[in-house]
Structure formats: structure tokens, C-alpha cells
Amino acid sequence: MIIKNWDELATTKLRRQPLKIIEAGIERVLPRAIMKSAVSYDAVSKSLKVKDTTYSTAKSRIFVIGGGKASGLMAEALEDTIDAKNIFTGIVNCKGGGYRTKRIKVIKAGHPLPDKRGFNGVKQMLALKEKHSINENDLVVCLLSGGGSALMPCPVDGVSLEDKQRTTELLLECGAEIHEINAVRKHLSRIKGGRLGEFYSPVRVVSLIISDVIGDDLDVIASGPTCPDFSTFQEAYAVLEKYDLAASVPESVLSYLKRGCRGEVAETPKSLTNCHNHIIGNNRLALKAMAKKAEELGFTPLIVTAEQKGDTAEAAYMRAREILEGKYQGYDAIMIGGETTPKLSENAGKGGRNQHYAAISMMAMKSYQGYWVVASVGTDGSDYLPDVAGAIVDNNALLRATSRGIDVKAYIDRFDSNTLFKKIGEALIITGNTGTNVSDVILYLLGQ
């Protein structure tokens, strides 16, 4: 069971059902399920098949590199799929630990802020090329998933890991979108923005990617280490100006980006003929599994979008308004995927975007004529706080808050949804590290 506190949350039938639906979605995008459906290996012809593309490995050694929240389980699944004995060696960085691999070393690294463990892991990945004389006859399989940007730090010369950590922290705090954060990180990295693929050229690099990015933009997932980068130094510097960070980021970062803007530092690669990138799992895959489970439970499901973004509060109010105005009439299981961005105040409390979304929904849905449940969950099991995946709310949650004299709006205004739900009870969803990451899933179940 993925949801660890199921018994605490499943207090009514209409609360048990969304938990089942959410679990079905996360189970479908667990790395083992994704890899099983997308990757196969023919031991006779010694060929690796990824979806509809086949790569001959008859004269190749197979090396494995990569990083992300799902990379540990991806590594396990890859060894099972092609047999560990057919892998020469490998190194991946992951958020969790305890993975059972034989040939691929899984290094536990820091997330959301990069750390020295991740840096050392990347250095070991790069060292493989010279150590084993990897050449164009070989094949490098790169396992990438959400979280790879932080888990695979390798700052450029002149910028320390601490300076890059501080810059990442400032970008997260100011509410910058993931595309903007990655534009900066790519231009401060030796491997992001296609530079990892460039480093291994002319060796074939086949990337297996689980996407946590809206629109599955290859250059954004894990900051696109094996994908051509179309952002520029000028755009990266513009992000700092947009959020008034030019005076706050470390001087080494500002100086390096300025040098890039002046053309004194080589741009990230704009083409990579040796790299082949495959999206093998994404948010829509989870939503489809949720819709199938909802049908099995007797609901009429609708997937609204897998690309919800923007301000968290605005998105939650908009969806509630659409439901109240009857936009989705005829459907009683409404599913949404994506990743919103809360605009945090200086004195923000505890909680992530999913808890914030659920708290706002609790207020926004109060005039709905009938019973309702809203669940908002990060598929990786971490809604900014590492021990909380998200939250589930319904009519009764709001009634409990009101009866106890809890000022829900005050908690929302100071972005303290985690404390709010601890006071209300029966709301926080605990999964632990799921080992995958395809952004967030949101579910509305509507009763009479």
C-alpha cells in the first residue's frame, strides 16, 4: 500500500475511493511498471529496445549513468530487464537509498538543495569515460527523472557548490518557475543543458526519461543533461533581474553569467547527434490509470489537463469555480495534473503546493451543493516537506475546522497549511518516498 496512513484518512466511503484512485495513478508510474512496458532486451541478438526504437549492443559494452528521484528504482528495473551481467558498470544519483543493484552504484544525494554527495557522484560518472576508455562502439544508458537537477550538481569552474546551492535556494524562495530555475542552473553547470551528452560524444547516449515537467520538455527535465539547450546566458541572467536577485546571488554566479552574456564562455550545445532521448513515463500516464480506476469504482471520470501550472491559489479557485458553475456537469471524478507555483510571503509557514491547494479548495468548494472530496498529491511523496505527499479534504474537514474555531483563511494567508491540517486532522497524506516523480495529481470526487 502506497499511502501509509490509509486507516486514518479512509473514514468514509467517499474518502476511501479517492485514496484508491490516487494509489492507482502512482502505482502506474512506479519505475518498475514504466520500465516493464517501455524497455526490453533481446539476449540472442543483443539488442536493447526502447518503445519502438532498437539499439544494437552486439559489439558494445553498456554503461549506466543518470540521476533523479526515480533513478534508483529505474536502475533496479533496468538490471532486471537486461540482466545485470550485460551491464559493464554504472553510477546514478538518487534521493533515497537501500536499492538492490548489482552493477549500478546508487549514490544517495541531496534534494531539493544539491550537496557534496551529489557532486561526488557526478564526478564519478564523468570519470567512467577515461577510466574504462568508453568509445563510439559502446552504449551509455542515461536514467533521468524529476529531481535530477538538484541530485546531479556539477558547478562550472569558479562557482562553488555552496554558491550554486544559495542561488538555487533564492530561486525556489522567490517563486520562479521550473523553466526559469533550470535556465540558470544549466548555465552554471558542467553537465546540464546538454553538456553531459556533449561530454560523452561521440559515444551513443540513450536516455530513458520519466518526466515531471509540464509538456514533457526534454530540455527541462533534470535540466536536460543529454538534450540540446535552447536557453541562453542572456535568458539566465534575465531571470535574476526579473526576480530582483542580481544583488542577492553570490558574486561568482553573477560574474560567470555576465561573462557568458559577453561571449567569453561557450554556450550550451544547441545540437547533439549522439544523444537519443525517450520519454517513457509522465503525468498523463498516471491520470489515465486514475481514470480507469475511477470507472471501476462506478464514477464517470474526466481528465481536464495534465498541464496545470501558474499560481497555486489562482488554479485552486479557478477549478472550484468551474465545478460550481457546472462546467464539468455529467462527470463526478475530475482529474488534473501538473505543477503549480505558490507565491510565498516572507514569513511563510510550513507546507507545500499540494497542501496549499487542498487548503484553498476547502474554502473554495464550501458552497457546493452535495458531498465532495478534493485530494492533491505529489507523486514523489514529498510536498516540499519530505514526510508529506499532499492532503485530502472534504465537507467534514471544513466543518471540523469551523467547530474548533480555526481561522482557515489566516493559515492560508501565511502559507501554513501543514500546521492547519495537523490541527484539523485526517487530512495529510503520507506515502514516504515513492521512488517516482511525474509532478502532481489532483482529484475531485463529487457526490449528491
Description:
This protein is α/β, with parallel strands linked by helices and 448 residues long. It has two domains: 6-27 and 284-446, glycerate kinase, domain 1; 30-281, 3-Layer(aba) Sandwich (Rossmann fold), CATH 3.40.50. Helix content is 38%, strand content 19%. The strands form three sheets. A six-stranded parallel β-sheet has the order 6-5-4-7-8-9, with helices on both faces. The longest helix is centred in the N-terminal third of the chain and has 16 residues, at 13-28. The chain starts with 5 loop residues before the first helix and ends with a strand.
How would the blueprint of this fold be written?
Blueprint: H1 6-9, H2 13-28, H3 31-38, E1 39-42, E2 47-50, E3 53-56, E4 62-67, H4 71-82, E5 89-94, E6 104-108, H5 116-131, E7 139-145, H6 148-151, H7 161-174, H8 178-186, H9 195-200, E8 204-210, H10 233-242, H11 251-261, E9 275-281, H12 283-296, E10 301-308, H13 312-324, E11 333-338, H14 353-364, E12 372-378, E13 390-394, H15 395-403, H16 408-413, H17 417-424, E14 428-429, E15 440-446
Provide a brief overview of the structure.
This protein is α/β, with parallel strands linked by helices. The chain contains 17 helices and 15 strands.
Features of this protein?
six-stranded mixed beta sheet; six-stranded parallel beta sheet; glycerate kinase, domain 1; 2 domains; 448 residues; single chain; globular; 17 helices; 15 strands; alpha/beta; Rossmann fold
Q: What name is given to the CATH topology of the largest domain?
A: Rossmann fold
Helical residue percent band: 25-40%
Looking across the biggest beta sheet, what order are the strands in?
6-5-4-7-8-9
Rg, please?
A: 22 Å
| Total helical segments | 17
Terminal residue distance: 29 Å
